Amino acid sequence: MASQGLAYDGCNFFRQRLVFSTLSGKRVKIKNIRSKDNDPGLRDFEASFIRLLDKVTNGSRIEINQTGTVLFYQPGLLFGGTVEHDCNPQRSIGYYLEALLMLAPFMKNSLKATLRGVTNDSVDPTVDLLKSTALPLMKKFGIDGEGFDLKVVKRGMAPGGGGEVVFTCPVRRTIRPVQLTDPGKIKRIRGVAYSVRVSPQMANRIVDSARAILNQFLPDIYIYTDHMKGANSGKSPGFGLTLVAETLNGSFISAEMSSTPQGQGDPVLPEDLGRNCAKLLLEEVHRGGCVDSSNQSLALLLMTLGQQDVSKVLLGPLSPYTIEFLRHIRDFFQIMFKIEVQKPLEDERKGGDKVLMTCVGVGYSNINKGLK
């Protein structure tokens, strides 16, 4: 594609730029990556992300200067197939998986990715969270089928890692437009309390404290405990909780917390973790919308790439990350969203302000997928 490239400054929103570049086929040049820093240039986890992109594409050209402060990326074709990647333990697998979720439906061959590293940490969305919210969201856009799955084979907590997940995704020719405007009331809450290399009792303590708060609101709560032993438990001790609230219309809203990594700051009590995570979930429910704040950008991307028809999604307040994401959509795909703020009435008890996002898809069709 002989389209003109785009130039950016700085290391922020690094993944967004490379993902958009790969999907749109536009070259991208990012300069001044931490150029004022004592330790300038790309971090190891970003270099690892570039290597992952290189594995799933065919014919990408990547040039990085000596100090790593300038990156030039010319995207190739999304090839897919079977990929194995050791993610850098500075960031969790969720960091890499979020980008793969955006690219996977548009590959030439259906993707089977085995990612190794940290499965759960307190910075990025954990693997459990993506499994319970991002996958059902993608199903609404028509990305589903036999081979659409995310399996946690081994857990690995920060800082040591040692976890492993397998993500499989079928390819799609087109994405169908959606109308997600009414989330409906919350009907049930599900969750996973996990613990590795600590007493299995920790998970039960988390569950009890989370239920103590959530049972005041609705009875249908089930939190699984997941205690992995031996080789499947990774290299570092830790525990955490992922909670997902499902609404009547099949939207999923989630929250999660992980214990502080070994040797980094004050240890956290499982009771406090359970309580705080339950409060975070209530906070997300208050923000509301059909998509929770961690998946806003995925929903907006799939709307943009939909067929040339109107898509509508009701979101809670937009996160700063999402706002930057919208700017990138405008840069790469020239799509602008219509944004309407809906203030709930005083007596409605519908939570915070909502934003109704409307756009017409670009009619993106998967050029990589061969005709059978």
Automatic annotation (TrEMBL):
One of its GO terms (cellular component) is nucleolus. Belongs to the RNA 3'-terminal cyclase family. Type 2 subfamily. Keywords: Nucleus, Ribosome biogenesis. This is RNA 3'-terminal phosphate cyclase-like protein. It is found in: Nucleus, Nucleolus. As part of the small subunit (SSU) processome, it plays a role in 40S-ribosomal-subunit biogenesis in the early pre-rRNA processing steps at sites A0, A1 and A2 that are required for proper maturation of the 18S RNA. Activates BMS1 by promoting GDP/GTP exchange. Does not have cyclase activity. SUPFAM superfamilies: EPT/RTPC-like (SSF55205). Coiled coil: none annotated. Its main location: nucleus. GO terms for biological process: endonucleolytic cleavage of tricistronic rRNA transcript (SSU-rRNA, 5.8S rRNA, LSU-rRNA); ribosomal small subunit biogenesis. Residues 181-285 form the RNA 3'-terminal phosphate cyclase insert domain. Gene3D superfamilies: RNA 3'-terminal phosphate cyclase domain (3.65.10.20), RNA 3'-terminal phosphate cyclase, insert domain (3.30.360.20). Part of the small subunit (SSU) processome, composed of more than 70 proteins and the RNA chaperone small nucleolar RNA (snoRNA) U3. Interacts with BMS1. Residues 8-339 form the RNA 3'-terminal phosphate cyclase domain. GO terms for molecular function: RNA endonuclease activity. NCBIfam families: 18S_RNA_Rcl1p. It comes from Seriola lalandi dorsalis.
